[in-house]
UniProtKB/TrEMBL annotation, chain A:
Official protein name in the record: Manganese/zinc/iron transport system ATP-binding protein
Superkingdom classification of source: Bacteria
Family assignment from sequence similarity: Belongs to the ABC transporter superfamily.
Species the sequence originates in: Paenibacillus prosopidis
Gene3D superfamilies, A to Z: P-loop containing nucleotide triphosphate hydrolases
Pfam families from the UniProt entry: ABC_tran
PROSITE patterns according to UniProt: ABC_TRANSPORTER_1, ABC_TRANSPORTER_2
InterPro entries the UniProt entry points to: AAA+_ATPase, ABC_transporter-like_ATP-bd, ABC_transporter-like_CS, Metal_Ion_Import_ABC, P-loop_NTPase
Keywords: ATP-binding, Nucleotide-binding, Transport
TrEMBL record, chain B:
Residues annotated as transmembrane: 17-38, 43-62, 68-89, 101-119, 139-164, 176-197, 203-222, 229-250, 262-284
Cellular component, GO, one term: ATP-binding cassette (ABC) transporter complex
Key words, A-Z: Cell membrane, Membrane, Transmembrane, Transmembrane helix, Transport
Protein's recorded name: Manganese transport system membrane protein MntC
Native organism taxonomy: Bacteria, Bacillati, Bacillota, Bacilli, Bacillales
Pfam families on file: ABC-3
Main localisation: membrane
Protein family membership: Belongs to the ABC-3 integral membrane protein family.
Function noted in UniProt: This protein is probably a component of a manganese permease, a binding protein-dependent, ATP-driven transport system.
Superkingdom field: Bacteria
Record GO biological process: cellular response to iron ion; response to zinc ion; transmembrane transport
Compartment(s): Cell membrane
Membrane topology, record value: Multi-pass membrane protein
Length: 268, 315
């Protein structure tokens, strides 16, 4: 059954930027993602929303092949992601690295070019020019030579974004880029997302702030271990769906949804 | 200690070998140590060194021959078993890596000492000198050892130069490295293997107990002088080489001083200088900067305080 399933999906020749079919992931015994399937349209900004522990970051890491999955298929532009790595850009959570590493902002952005270089080649003048341009796009050109530990949290986040831009990908994964950044950085990120969209690129963003979802994203993907809902923001980001996703534990809701806040009850 | 004594020391062909050997050892350990330190695995070198002892003993018991090549294989196998042991413990229990390293390190070292005692009291003919691996004996270095050391050093530096980009990115952001398709697990194992090679090459001169110092100390010292990885690796290599050279020189000039421990002390002294005088991160530089900031703050705020006092007095 699973065999015919795989064959049929290959035959369907989907050319969507990202098509995920029956993806399941478990840490130890506990399932973190169960049978998630969806397909992302080209040129969309997609917000991935769900409570803590819903598997949002896991979905991203499994799609990128960073962690092993129990089963399921991930296709990027119709091919397994392993063959399409150059098309994928990734912005990990800022806390995932040690910012006291001996390197500067430009050097981190240059790492985005490594995937385009051979095994032994060093980044050259052309790569440097691209990296500088990417830093400029996130408003960080003046900080190119700055040691990365001397950047603020928001600036570090923008350096990570610039690195993803330098990858020159078509499909971007961003893991909570808005977490703990100042207003200037938030604005810079939004401008960048809009520009990427204009260039026809597809961006998938793990997002926490429910109040801004309607302003930022074309589509939302509601996740809580299983896929709860996926579709255009206007139709999918509703009170009913959110309640289902957050299981009545929602302590905060956008006022425009006209919904009384739930208290964050631990015992259910 | 004048130029005369350095010259006479270097004129002795035996000393020449030891001098070159220790300098090369410091150089290669310093270079590879940078990546261990930045990957927060400074203690991995220590674990691998202690794990090497039973490996060396078993290699000797099986073959009855004292040969660096065989010891390298024995130590390498023991090192791989030790790293898998640490990986297994951290993956399948709630223990953190430091606890797992402590257990594996002391377990292997205990086994090594037991085997060493067995060898010394058993009927292995050519056993003399194996106990020197505990604290090392640079004086026993001969021409063939130095040739081995030269090959090891050339290999380590070549691999680190060719794969600099890869080692840099797996040290900074392994997740991103995996995302762009680098075989991170393979590169991590390769780095570990290079550390094993550096450790085994160093054991003869410095001993299992102290060899980790040559991996950690020059790298940490170099970090105080620069914010660029490339320069840090070069500096760390130079610091290691200088420690080896100074260690040999002092132990040759003052009778009965052991080369290995003196080399480690020289590296420690360099660390002391670095942590004090490092241009930005050094303790003195930091204190001076804090003082400057404080003075400026007081200078800028003094007029305002005066005004306030005046106002209060007028009231």
């Amino acid at each position: 059954m699973s065999l015919t399933h795989t064959v049929s999906s290959r035959n369907a020749k989907t050319t969507a930027p990202l098509a995920i079919n029956g993806l399941s992931v478990a840490y130890q015994k506990k399932p973190v993602l169960r049978n998630v399937s969806f397909e992302v349209k080209e040129g969309e900004l997609v917000g991935v929303i769900g409570p803590n522990g819903a598997g949002k970051s896991t979905l991203m890491k499994a799609a990128l092949g960073l962690i092993p999955s129990l089963g399921g298929e991930v296709l990027v532009y119709g091919k397994p992601y392993k063959q399409q790595r150059q098309m994928i850009g990734y912005v990990p959570q800022r806390e995932s690295v040690d910012w006291d590493f001996p390197t500067n902002a430009l050097d981190v952005v240059l790492m985005g070019r490594y995937g385009h270089l051979g095994w032994f080649r060093r980044p050259g003048a052309k790569d440097k020019a691209i990296a500088l341009e990417c830093l400029n796009k996130v408003g960080m050109a003046d900080y190119a030579g700055r040691q990365i530990s001397q950047l603020s949290g928001g600036q570090q986040q923008r350096v990570f974004l610039a690195r993803a831009l330098a990858q020159d990908a078509k499909l971007y994964f961003m893991d909570e880029p808005f977490a703990g950044v100042d207003a200037a950085t938030e604005k810079a990120i939004i401008t960048l997302l809009q520009e990427l969209k204009k260039q026809g690129k597809t961006v998938i963003v793990v997002h926490h702030d429910l109040a801004t979802v309607q302003d930022y994203f074309d589509s939302v993907l509601l996740l809580n271990v299983e896929l709860q809902a996926y579709g255009p923001t206007a139709e999918t980001f509703t009170q009913e769906q959110l309640q289902r996703t957050y299981g009545g534990r929602l302590a905060f809701l956008d006022r425009s949804l006209q919904h009384p806040s739930f208290s964050g009850g631990k015992g259910e | 200690m004048t130029m005369q004594t350095i010259w006479s020391m270097l004129a002795d062909p035996n000393m020449q070998w030891i001098f070159i050997g220790c300098t090369l050892l410091g150089l290669s350990s310093g270079v590879i140590g940078c990546f261990s330190y930045l990957r927060k695995q400074s203690l991995m070198g220590d674990t691998l060194a202690h794990a090497a002892l039973p490996g060396i003993c078993i290699a000797f018991m099986l073959t009855g021959v004292k040969s660096i090549g065989l010891f390298l294989i024995g130590a390498g196998v023991a090192g791989v078993v030790a790293t898998f042991g640490i990986g297994y413990i951290t993956r399948h229990s709630k223990l953190k890596q430091d606890a797992a390293m402590g257990i594996v390190l002391s377990g292997f070292f205990g086994l090594g000492i037991v085997l060493l005692t067995l060898i010394q009291h058993g009927d292995y003919g050519n056993q003399s000198g194996l106990d020197k691996f505990l604290f090392g004996q640079a004086a026993s270095m001969i021409a063939s050892d130095v040739i081995t050391m030269t090959i090891v050093c050339a290999l380590l530096i070549t691999v680190c130069t060719l794969l600099f980009k890869q080692f840099k990115i797996i040290s900074f952001d392994p997740g991103f490295a995996r995302g762009i398709g680098y075989p991170v697990a393979f590169l991590e194992q390769l780095l570990m293997l290079l550390v094993v090679v550096a450790v085994v090459a160093g054991i003869q001169a410095v001993g299992v107990v102290l060899v980790a110092a040559l991996l950690i100390t020059p790298a940490v010292s170099a970090r105080y002088w620069t914010d660029r990885l490339g320069l840090m690796v070069v500096l760390s290599g130079l610091f290691g080489a200088a420690s080896g050279a100074v260690g040999t020189w002092i132990s040759a000039s003052v009778s009965n001083l052991p080369t290995g421990p003196v080399t480690v002390l020289a590296a420690t002294l360099l660390f002391g200088i670095s942590i004090l005088f490092g241009p930005q991160r050094g303790l003195i530089a930091k204190r001076l900067m804090r003082q400057r900031v404080k003075e400026r703050f007081i200078r800028e705020n003094e007029p305002r305080i005066h005004e306030q006092v005046k106002k209060e007095a007028a009231l």
